[in-house]
Every structure is written in C-alpha cells, then in structure tokens.
Amino acid sequence: MSLYTRFASGLLFPLHERLKGHGSVALRRELERSQWLDATALERLREARLGQFLMRASRSVPYYRELFAAQGLRPAPSMPLAHHPYDSPSAITPTVRPTRLRPIPPP
Q: Rounded to two decimals, what is the model's pTM?
C-alpha cells in the first residue's frame, strides 16, 4: 500500500466522514469484527439489531406503530427472532389500513 493510500484511507477519509456526520468508518470496523463471530454470537447480534430497527420503526413510522399495536407486539432491544411474526410482506399488508399522506404546505 502506497504512502498516499495509507494517508487517504487512514486519515483523510475517516476525517471527511466524521465531518459529514456519517458512521461509515465505525460501521466498517463493526462489520470486520462481526465476520469472525461464531453462530450463537452472530444470532444475538442479529436479534439486537432487528430489535433496535423495529423499535425505531415503531417510534417514527405511524404505519408500523399501528401495525405493532394491532398485533400486540412491543418491540424490545433484544427480542428473539421467533417473536417477530412479520417474516413476509403478506403477513404485514392486510392487517392495517393504508396511511393517507397529507400534502406538505409550501413554506
């Protein structure tokens, strides 16, 4: 690896990403670390990330908030995958009425 490549990938790119507020460098490090996990640890990581994703979706997306409430599901940070009943679009679609979008008024 050339001196320029090491400088750009080790200093310039991480600094640029940090200034933009991106987490790509940390994500890459996490992916490099997780590729060597055993199956049990990888499953725990998947459950934790899925739980975080579902919690964020239920907080910020009215459709999923209604869907989860209708099903009695309360997403948790680390919920076993067996407790996630939504494994296909057909399991989600018919349960909640579509959300109507409202036009955004001009500024």
A: 0.58
Q: How many domains does the chain have?
A: 1
CA distances from 100 to 60, 62, 63, 72, 97 (A): 16, 10, 10, 23, 9
Cβ contact 83:54 at 8 Å: no
For the stretch 84-98, pLDDT in tens is: 555 555 555 555 555
Residue 52 is part of which domain span? 40-97
The two structure tokens encoding residue 54: 């579902």
DSSP H/E element including 20: helix 13-20
Q: Judge whether 73 lies within some domain.
A: yes
Distance (Å, rounded) from C-alpha 12 to C-alpha 47?
34
Residue 54 in any domain: the answer is yes
